Amino acid sequence: MNLQKKSIIAKSAIIGDKVLLGRKTEIGDYTVLKGSINIGQSCFIGSNCVIGGDPKIKNHSRELGKIIIGNFSYIAENVCIDSSHEKSTVIGDNVYIMPHTYIGHDAKLSGNTIITAGCKLGGHVRIGESANLGLGVLIHQYCTIGPYSMIGMGSVVTKDIPPFSLAMGVPCRVTGINKIGLLRAKFTEEEIELIIKLFEEKADIKIKGRTRVSRNFEWYKNNYNRRKKK
């Protein structure tokens, strides 16, 4: 274990020798960190978490993969995050994960996402920047949740969700745009009107320049439909 200054580790925590902890990071009671894990600065990991567990793949025989956790991220108690099977499992900067959440192998959560209590994410799931998952959301492996989307409580996601969406249900379906989330993220009225137009016309509209809207649609374009590509 490589421990930076001012980190706080509970005496009952179990930390493997390949774990790198950033400055001012706190690890709670009875939490287990094993395998190759790189945790950024000023993170909090609560009690009874297991980070670095075997990827849930039958007959998995490789050594544990890598987990990367960015700066300023919060992981509440009783969270399980699996090691990667192929490349790495990634939790971005300033991610907020609530209790009793499971994150499968090779999942990637972009910065500023909120994962509320009881969510379950299958392997290779992608969560875009500032997306918000409601209580108990279930996401099928290889699905992508677009940036700034809101997934309603108890939804079962079986296919990709575009950016800026409000989606809910079993199965989960897009019902509109996440206008409240966009306003909270300080999107302008002009940006929101453009997003509404993109949704209503359901066709590609050329966006002049590299804007926040175009950048997030580009991220989604590079990350959607991965099950068929696989």
Provide an overview of this structure:
This protein has 230 residues and is α/β, with parallel strands linked by helices. The chain has a single domain, classed as Hexapeptide repeat proteins (UDP N-Acetylglucosamine Acyltransferase, domain 1, 3 Solenoid), CATH 2.160.10. The protein has a ten-stranded mixed beta sheet. An eight-stranded parallel beta sheet has the order 1-4-7-10-13-16-19-22, with no helix packed on it. An eight-stranded parallel beta sheet has the order 3-6-9-12-15-18-21-24, with no helix packed on it. A hairpin with a 4-residue loop joins strand 25 and strand 26. It is globular, with a radius of gyration of 18 Å. The mean pLDDT is 91.
Q: Which helices and strands, and how do they pair?
A:
Elements: E1 2-3, E2 8-9, E3 14-15, E4 19-21, E5 26-27, E6 32-33, E7 36-39, E8 44-45, E9 50-53, E10 66-69, E11 74-75, E12 80-82, E13 88-91, E14 96-97, E15 102-103, E16 108-109, E17 114-115, E18 120-121, E19 126-127, E20 132-133, E21 138-139, E22 144-145, E23 150-151, E24 156-157, E25 165-168, E26 173-177, H1 179-184, H2 189-201, H3 212-223, H4 226-229
Summarize the structure.
The protein has 230 residues and is of the alpha/beta class. It contains four helices and 26 strands. The chain has helices at residues 179-184, 189-201, 212-223, 226-229, and strands spanning 2-3, 8-9, 14-15, 19-21, 26-27, 32-33, 36-39, 44-45, 50-53, 66-69, 74-75, 80-82, 88-91, 96-97, 102-103, 108-109, 114-115, 120-121, 126-127, 132-133, 138-139, 144-145, 150-151, 156-157, 165-168, 173-177.
